[in-house]
Amino acid sequence: MRRRDFLLRLPAGVLIAASRSRAQLLPPPQPSPTVVNPVFRSTVRPWISLDGEWDFSVDPHDEGLKEEWFSPDHWQGPDSVLRKINVPGAWEAEGVGTSGLSHSTACEFATIPLRHEYVGVAWYRKSLNVPSAWQGKRAWLKIGGVNSKGWFWCNGNYLGQLDNCTSGGNKFEVTSLLKSGENTVVVRVDNQLNSRKGLVNWRDQFGGLYRSVELEATSQAYLEDVWVRPDFDNRRAIVSVTTAAPWQQQVSGDYQLGVQIYTLPEEERAGEGEAGMGALPYTGTEMVIPVVLNPFRPWSPEHPFLYKAEVRLEQRGEELDSWVERFGVRSIQRCGPDLCLNGKPCLLRGFGDDYVYPLTLSSPPSVEYHKRHLEIARSYGFNYVRHHTHAETPEYYQAADEVGIMIQAELPYEGILPSPPGPYQPLDDLNEFCRQYRRYVSLTTYSMGNEGLHEEGYRRTLFRTAKLLDPTRLVLHQDGGVNYEGISDFRGGPVNVPVTEHDVEGTMPVVLHEYLNLSGPPDPRLEPLFTGAEASPFQLEEVKEQVEKRGLEWTLVERAIEGGHELQSMYQKLGVENARSVPGVDGFDYWTIVDVLPLMHQRLLDTFWRAKRSSPEYFRLFNSEVVLLLPDLSPYGVDRVFTSGSAVSHALSCSNYSENAISGSTISWILEGKGRDYAHGQFENVNAPQGAVTQMGRIEFQMPDMEGPEELSLRVKIENRNIDNEWKLYCFPAFQARAKLRAASASETIYHQFRGDYPGLKLVQGDFARRHHRPEELLITEKLDENAFRLLELGGRLLLLSLADFSPQKVGAQLGWWRPTSNQRGSALADSEAFAGFPADGGLPNFAIFRLFREAVELDEKLADHVEPLALTLGVGESIIPVEKTPPWAGQDDAADSRSTNYLMNVFQSRVGAGRLLASGFDVLSGKPEANYLLDAFLKYAESPDFEPKRSISVRDLRKITSPPQKA
């Protein structure tokens, strides 16, 4: 048995054995921040990547400490290693564990199904050989990230514990512990323990070494850190260099620091500087070397120019160490009521990021991976991202530096509630985050939390500390919470339309918090794409079975899903244009860029970063640097329908947040439809100052005469520039009845409203059905009364213009923020003569039908296979997703987004007895142009030989379904 001379107690209270040695008798240095997987590597620092295969063993009963699994000898037996595992990555993505539900820990959390799930302790081991050339150098074990906590050993010697709030990287010195020949690194990881990384763990508190692990060698005196602070106003780079000596030693000598700066990618010399030092204390010395930049190239999203600084540490002409740091120069600051980038007002066109990685769970430590996603975001016109209560990996920031995305990072707090509950230490977390991430020019904003308010004593202290540590960034106290002068550089605004000038009153800049958040439909067609860590939250075949049980055609359900995406696309344009039309709005965080399954389907893209309905070209029409706007259009989309001959007049404005003013330009506009130019005009010599919303003039025209309804496009563009926008308008001809009612009667309200349009229409009186029982008889009514049932028994035709007898649900076109406000997630029209050319391209919803949405009937088991849906809406059904935990902030309504899809019918038809029924929940009696047209289409269809429903229900069953429930 190995002799145990003393015990070292871990902070968590776990006792581990350690062998006696002079190195172990002294408390080891604490882990210190470092850069893992840097953009550029020093030419004088040899390094060994420990990425790739490691030995791996789970320890479900936590016996490894007692049995000394940290000892290299433990891993020599043939049965000691259960398997190999790849580092970096979450162990769930590597197939560790069994299928089950995730265990998330954050201020907000979602329980998701995982293909593999293991909660507990596991051990990693890696063997390596150190080159003889490392003799005389210092060696460092560098860990990019561990979740949720890790304990580290080198050759059986305990190094320390890591639980970093951010994901930047830490290092342990292992110089005295390495030996010639084979060396081992052992890591104990426990993902049961609190790890306050915010939304990094909100879907699952995954386990493992999720970023790279490296071994690096330096000289005895070395460069501890390099940070290049931009000095935009003086066109300089302030190079801050921290040097260090061996632990508990101070070395003296003639030391020299040299800096050379180059442009990227050309590597043109852009500046140089130097400084001398007489001594290097082990605690570190920071030297500041200003370097004037020539050429001077400011970084911006449109021009993400970067430099590299090569820093050398020399002693009497001999190079001891070097560091290569990539950086950019830009200024982001508050300018009164505006936010300014590089001295000019800017608009933060932001999107939200909730740390969604369905294949890997953890953020892949790959610059190229994140570049692909951020380039998609840039293609949609975004220039800013808010990371909800978390800090992304450095590789994400490196990608953002290159692509041109400004980043708002956030401490893992919701108010004063850490994520998960634990030590309340925002000052420590802020200090750690600044030290780790200020090197990335894309980092733009420090946020102290989400939708809360830190304790009184912390608010101003946090603000002052952030400005002291890093004066080159904006500071926000709480995204969506309380912000005011002295604790924040800007404040939030409305989360949904309409945004008005009243919302931006005051002296602080305004950036709209979690803006829009448009509830859409779940899309079970994504199931085949869930090939990694997360299992699909829905099963496509099960959904199809449910659809079949309801007697629905799968093609119509797919169309309704696309209809939901189309509604999202329409409201995206309405909402963003509304925000951009209001002077004083300095930005928004569109919430969010990808779906967060299974809870939320509000996003611009699906969970795999694929487009739904909105293409980049479409989205850039209203989300670019310069956008043309019609500010007096309704943000609800209810003013897009006209009658032939109507006069149309709209103000035209320009939101210009490019780098320059627009002057002396020509703006042209055209009203088009079916290849025809119905109206056009232009504005000469117009000007649009930079950083403002400017009125350009008014567009005025008359709607053309139409023989039938038509979708028109109003297009506006700035000539000789790639700046344009368009809006869909709808024109209906002046109403003229097309239906020739030969034998039709109507209830009193309908009769008096339409008798002038349909001279043959009769008024229902008395026992109508007994006296009118011809097969072609048509009854138009809003109620299933005895006349209606009798007529159906006798073989007549019934047009029902209200669904009140079916206990309908209210269904509007408005998509809700976070959850549906009108049980609307998507709609579609079937291919039917009933709609007679109503303008609905591909059967998808558009502004022509917005004002007609009113009510719908659930297609339940009582109606399944008995009725034929002609207009389908996807609503919210009962819960099918198991949830282990209920967040303390969640009310009953908050569970709405975890419910299954409910199939609702706006319009349906059926054979009832010997008769035929066409029922509509659309508001076709409103007198609006589109309502009149659709009512006439229904009348014409109901009298035509095309009215041949394929399904049937008995009069008796219909009576049961529509009868009011009996009182107890």
Summed up:
The chain has 968 residues and is an alpha+beta fold.
CATH superfamily annotation of the largest domain? Glycosidases
CATH architectural category of the largest domain: Alpha-Beta Barrel
Q: What's the overall average pLDDT, rounded?
A: 89
Largest sheet: 11 strands, mixed
In angstroms, what separates the terminal alpha carbons? 79 Å
Determine the number of helices (DSSP H or I, runs of at least 4 residues).
Answer: 14
Gross morphology is: elongated
Computed CA radius of gyration, to the nearest angstrom: 34 Å
Task: Give the domain tally.
Answer: 5
Mind explaining what this structure looks like?
The N and C termini lie far apart (79 Å). The protein folds into five domains: 24-213, Jelly Rolls (Sandwich), CATH 2.60.120.260; 222-327, Immunoglobulin-like (Sandwich), CATH 2.60.40.10; 343-523 and 569-620, Alpha-Beta Barrel (TIM Barrel); 626-732, Immunoglobulin-like; 744-962, Rossmann fold (3-Layer(aba) Sandwich). Strands 45, 46, 47, 48, 49, 50, 51, 52, 53, 54 and 55 form an eleven-stranded mixed beta sheet that branches. A hairpin with a 2-residue loop joins strand 40 (662-673) and strand 41. 50% of the residues are buried. The protein is of the alpha+beta class and 968 residues long. Helix 2 packs across helix 3 (394-403) and helix 4 (426-437) packs parallel to helix 5. The chain contains 14 helices and 55 strands.
